[in-house]
Amino acid sequence: MHPLVSVIIPFYNCPYVHQAIQSVLQQTYPNVEIIVVDDGSTQYVDLILPFKNKVHYLGKKNGGTASAINHGISMASGAYIAWLSSDDMFYPQKIQKQLSFMLHNHSLASYTPYDAMDANSHVYQRHIGHVLPGEIALCQGFIKGLNPINGCTIMVQRSVFDIVGYFNEQLRFTQDYDMWVRLMLHGVKFDYLPEPLTMYRFHERMGTVRHQSEMFPEYEAVQRQYTQPLKYRIRQLEEISF
Questions:
Q1: Phi, psi angle pair for 167, to nearest 5°
Q2: Alpha-carbon span 1 to 11, nearest angstrom
Q3: CB atoms within 10 A of CB 77
Q4: For range 227-238, the mean pLDDT
């Protein structure tokens, strides 16, 4: 069985987008759909041209990362969804290994650690990520201000979006955090595969560097919003475990 996996690559003026696309084209898994969502880019669109016959290229008015991912999800045909920032890369066996893990465990959602690379695609640190085994530990991590789930390591069943809806387009920087918490509050369990399958790029142009002053107030507001619901979810899980 080879279910279709849709990989969504949101793109906005990113000089690394061709490397992201190439990393998905090099996957060992045979049934992958690549959806590149151009969020109103004015630069580097030419880097996508060599791949136009190998990807689904969707253009849209600039609306932010959440709107780009949502547009990709709405057009995706796959039973499973993964997404990749246009400046990051997948290792060749990413989809094959993670999907196999999910099928074996009957997972709705899964995530992994990641490796760090620099602007020149040199991997300089391996196996990054907070290991929080189990749903209770994951909820506690979010309450403490951790975001242990890197969005580009995620793979989810397409059906989960029918449960919780799409990403919140009002959030410019914390749409991932918001989505993971909403999934947990709806009883979606995140299974952890302890193998780095993604290369996450740290560079001076990345959004978390350029928009820190705007990002932290939004992050704190979302964290406050979900603290009590997460504590209630922990109590539910503790009652189930007895």
A1: -65, 150
A2: 31
A3: 10
A4: 96
99 phi, psi to nearest 5 deg: -65, -40
Look at 98 and 163; give whichever has higher pLDDT: 98
The HSE-up count of residue 216 (CA atoms within 13 Å, CB side) is: 4
Per-residue pLDDT at 233 exceeds 80: yes
Quote the pLDDT of residue 207: 59
Lowest average pLDDT, out of 35-49, 80-94, 190-204, 212-226, goes to 212-226
Amino acid at 230: L
> Tokens at residue 107, please?
């997972």
Q: What is the β-pairing status of strands 32-39 and 56-60?
A: parallel
Distances (CA, A) of 208 to 14, 130, 151, 201, 214: 14, 18, 13, 11, 10
Predicted confidence band of residue 216 (pLDDT cuts 50, 70, 90): confident
CA distance 59 to 42: 11
Query: How much is the mean pLDDT over the chain?
Result: 93
Residue 93 CA to residue 117 CA, distance in Å, equals 18
Q: How distant, in Å, are the alpha carbons of 14, 32, 215, 225, 232 from that of 221?
A: 28, 37, 10, 6, 18
